[in-house]
Amino acid sequence: MSVKRKIPAVMSSQHPDNAGAPYWHSNPYIKTEDELKECFLMYKDLGVEEVMWDWEGKFVDEAVIERLYGSHLAFFRKRPLGKDIFLTFRVPNPRVESGYRLGRAFMVILSAAHFVEGLAFKNRPLFEVILPMTESASEIIKLQKGYERFSKAAAFSFGGKSFSTVPLEVIPLFETVGTIMKSGEILRKYVASHKKQFGSYPVYLRPFCARSDPALNSGIVATTLAIKCALSDYESFAKTSGIKMYPIIAPGALPFRGGFSPETFKEFSEEFSGVRTIMIQSAFRYDYKLSKVKRAIRILHKILPRLRTREVSETMRKKVKKIIPWFETPYTKTVEKLAPIIGKISTHIPKRRERLQHIGLFGYSRGVGKVKLPRAIGFCASCYSLGIPPELFGVGEGLERAIKEGQIKTVETLYKTFRLALKRSGRYLRKESLKELGLGELERGIVMIEKYLGETLGPVTEDELRHAELVGRIIFLLKVGESPTKEIEEAAKLRQSLG
């Protein structure tokens, strides 16, 4: 089966991880009303082919299509949405975020199609959505059937054409290590259900592996190993089914959230070879020189379609299932101990977007009790601001077990930039924080990491040393009850990402 549409290599998102102000804006804080301008400039200035328009847990401009076409009609005549470039909604998962927001997103999708027909455009501008926190095939089908019913009801109630005969295309977003590991099986069940429900198989799928939220739940090693297994599963399924697979990943700039920046994009692309679309977040776009950002995007367009998936054998997969808990369990124990101080500092992390209150993922399916944490960006920013990079949590204990069991080569074979991630994050470690925060167990784990790497962790450059000084100031201000927000922001600019 041939895929007639363009598959974008680079997707822009609204993830609020930028430390500094966007090149087009005077303030690091981006209001909902500014996101329309941002969206257009991602297409026009950066050459991005897809923008994620986020309905999950945040405010959103529902007149996005009318406003974009109304202000930039000549541009979209040359590059129509739905054909040359794409706008993709991340919609609320009704299992997690109930209410009418999903219905409002459906209505925007339908009304946009009618709107552009009036302007003589042939392509529907919106036809595909991202379903967050996907855990089963039935959730995807339920969303598509819900859209079908909604389309029929809207046509009956308000007149106009019904689009119910064309299934809404869904990008399943897998956000925990557990669901990522079984995502290949979820897709197999979904394809079979799609045939029963709609009379045909999907021509292609775009499975989406989260990078930040599974790290928040399980740490960087468990997350990376799971994604490698999933990418291999997708490739295998594509070969046996004939259904094209175009995986998506959404990394942040700091190693904990992926280590993907205009300076490391080639390295990341090689590490996660087989990914077809990479989401670039705010820090990638706004905390580096614009010339570097544009160059990285140009190269990503060329190299991503050529990089092939590395196969994970069944034997290796069985080893991965055994290894994951060795790193995941000590990670979660460390985070549980740190939860109070992270909660305290997270209230001082500067905001970058207008958000609704969000249901956190931590503990959602990992069995870690009632620990409450900020979202991944706030969590990562909190840890770095305390001088304890979360990349290091639980890794020492995991390394000790992997070496003892003779499986360290398995980790290094699948996670080729593992040592590099530890070294890079370790340069933002402030060892004085370990004693000041009473983190003896983490201190022992870091000794194990240093032994494995054969080098001492800590700041090296002037910026890293300045970062450590700011961390000391942040901890002092927290202890005396004063806000360290200014220092947190200054430190974030030094590491070129908020979190």
Low-confidence segments, given as residue ranges, are 358-369
Coarse structural class: alpha/beta
What's the gyration radius in Å?
22 Å
The CATH topology label of the largest domain is TIM Barrel
Could you name the CATH class of the largest domain?
Alpha Beta
Task: Provide the β-strand percentage band.
Answer: 5-15%
| Cα shape | globular
Q: What's the CATH H-level homologous superfamily of the largest domain?
A: Phosphoenolpyruvate-binding domains
Supply the CATH architecture of the largest domain: Alpha-Beta Barrel
Q: Within the largest sheet, what's the order of strands?
A: 1-2-3-4-5-7-9-10
DSSP summary, beta strand count: 10
Number of domains: 2
Helix content: 40-55%
User: Overall mean pLDDT score?
Assistant: 93
State the distance separating the first and last CA atoms: 41 Å
